[in-house]
Amino acid sequence: MLMRTDPMTAHTPEATSEKVRPAVQLDGVTKRFGDSMALHEAWLKIRPSEFMTLLGPSGCGKTTLLNLVAGFLEADNGEIFIDGDLVTETPAHMREIGIVFQNYALFPHMSVAKNIAYGLKTRGVDKKEIARRVDEALALVKLSGFADRKPRQLSGGQQQRVALARALVIRPKVLLLDEPFSALDKNLRGSMQVELKQIQRELGVTTIFVTHDQGEALSMSDRIAVMSAGRIRQIAAPDDIYRRPADRFVASFVGDANILNGRLVEKRGDVAVVSVGDISAEVPVAPIAALSIGDAVDVFVRPEHLSVTARGASGSLPGTVTTQVFQGGHVDLYIDASGSARERILLRSPGIAALSSCPVGAEIGLIIGSDDIVAFPPGEAA
Amino acid sequence: MKRSPATIALRWSGRIIVAAILLFVLLPGVVVAISAFNDRAILQFPPQSWSLRWFYRAFSYSDFAKGFWNGLTVTVWASSIAVVVGSAFAFAIHRYKFALRDFLEGILLSPLIIPHYTVGLGILILASQTGIGRGFPLVIFAHVVMVLPFVMRSTYISLENLDTRLELAASSLGATPLRILFTVTIPLLIPGLLSGWLFAAILSFNEFTATLFVSSQATQTLPVAMYNYVREFADPTLAALSVIYIVVTATLLTIANSFLGLGKILNVDAH
């Protein structure tokens, strides 16, 4: 097997009872390109065997962070540790990291086997051992029998498997994935995601995955660091990111969100009560702790947390259905509720019942059917 | 919609102009090629009677044979030196930012705007002042100067087209910069280096103006030998030589194109 030295260590009781040494640690890492701040004081601790995703729009600094960990860029400030060792000034070729690029970057003049063997040759591994480990790696990515092909003779998915095998065969301390799925077509992407996740879990290799695709991030990660404009906005497990976004950027970037006009009614302990029309809801107090009772707030509600009721029912908002979009498993209703929201409200109704019960033009009532509501100080719709 | 007579006239005059240009491009070569088969010892078009004897003379005339081998020596040395030196400079200019970078690039590309007779004359003056004889090193030196810009450009374009992520991938796999250079960078630049060498070779082998200044009887290349021949004789030997030359060059280029994708390299703009 291509196992790292006992990846289970991290899960044994004594390892967890002690403070686990982070596999990767960034302490206030800053990187500027000329006048622009590519990465602003990033603090990040990645646990051994963890699958950490850096999620954000292009230009948010996620690729810069990845390149800093890889050693392709030098940090202006701050320190980087891999496996507890300070590597801030260690050149890339001495960091023992594996990387898979978006375009795979396979050496076009070498066969699949030579590509995979490259990192072993640089380490002076003997020939027999190289052959054995290359075979093993090819089996791991289900490409046994492709050893003598050239990269250009492979499909995109196969090229990606080779790139993965090449990165893993050196038993890297960290595996870096730079948007590896964006060049694949949609069907292949799904199956490669499942496979990659499976391999990652099997080997227990610490992984940093860069993507702008929130679906990929939510489905694959142990934790996600959401980034924007060179800053890490929130680091949390996928469900926490989705249910309890830390700020309005995270709330709008991850998943769909409706922004309702609300008011702060009450603060008690960790929670605050906000009202939208006749509805009142509890939200985490932290993001709006600075506001006073009676101040306006933006209330973020997921489309699937809204449901339809009769017009005028108590605790509901009035709205008019303007568009129906049948999505197969669910129906998207666009609802005009001016007064409660600045923009059209999106409501996601499971099943197909809404197709007939909520025709275009129907006057309906909206209710919020979840506790996962968050509120932020009013601002531009991000 | 009906086209106006003016439109039709414009369209036809355009076609005629294009046809005329194409004709004039080919005309000199065609005239010379046909003249080469003249039986009589004069350059005449079209010939009255036909023969292959000037081809025989082109091959047997000793100055031509010597000029050919001299030219080949100069070409191989000059192109090879230019590829090594030019590529090193192209690499430095492409990869590193340093003071006077643009200035250096300007100097290295300047032979494009300096006439060949200036290069020849300059080197000749220097050689006579310093007492360096007009041997092969002098001719080769002149040729290196003149072909350097072309080699640099060819390497530069190849570097532009090289995906730097390949080098990053190699370094993540533990390869030192030197190892990356020899296992990734240079192998991937080889088509560009070869096509640069080939262009340098064609230019060098054809070069006449500067070579006339810097060569001697012992080092004269084929173009210089041809010039000296035409001063004495006016028979179709040169025409025959031209035909041979065109056929050989065209063959070489065709082979190079199918192996290296020369057209692809040339069509990509560097800057």
TrEMBL record, chain B:
<feature type="transmembrane region" description="Helical">
    <location>
        <begin position="138"/>
        <end position="159"/>
    </location>
</feature>
<feature type="transmembrane region" description="Helical">
    <location>
        <begin position="103"/>
        <end position="126"/>
    </location>
</feature>
<keyword id="KW-0813">Transport</keyword>
<dbReference type="Pfam" id="PF00528">
    <property type="entry name" value="BPD_transp_1"/>
</dbReference>
<comment type="similarity">
    <text>Belongs to the binding-protein-dependent transport system permease family.</text>
</comment>
<keyword id="KW-0472">Membrane</keyword>
<keyword id="KW-0997">Cell inner membrane</keyword>
<feature type="transmembrane region" description="Helical">
    <location>
        <begin position="180"/>
        <end position="205"/>
    </location>
</feature>
<dbReference type="GO" id="GO:0005886">
    <property type="term" value="C:plasma membrane"/>
</dbReference>
<dbReference type="InterPro" id="IPR000515">
    <property type="entry name" value="MetI-like"/>
</dbReference>
<feature type="domain" description="ABC transmembrane type-1">
    <location>
        <begin position="68"/>
        <end position="256"/>
    </location>
</feature>
<feature type="transmembrane region" description="Helical">
    <location>
        <begin position="68"/>
        <end position="91"/>
    </location>
</feature>
<feature type="transmembrane region" description="Helical">
    <location>
        <begin position="238"/>
        <end position="262"/>
    </location>
</feature>
<keyword id="KW-1133">Transmembrane helix</keyword>
<dbReference type="GO" id="GO:0055085">
    <property type="term" value="P:transmembrane transport"/>
</dbReference>
<dbReference type="InterPro" id="IPR035906">
    <property type="entry name" value="MetI-like_sf"/>
</dbReference>
<keyword id="KW-1003">Cell membrane</keyword>
<keyword id="KW-0812">Transmembrane</keyword>
<protein>
    <submittedName>
        <fullName>ABC transporter permease</fullName>
    </submittedName>
</protein>
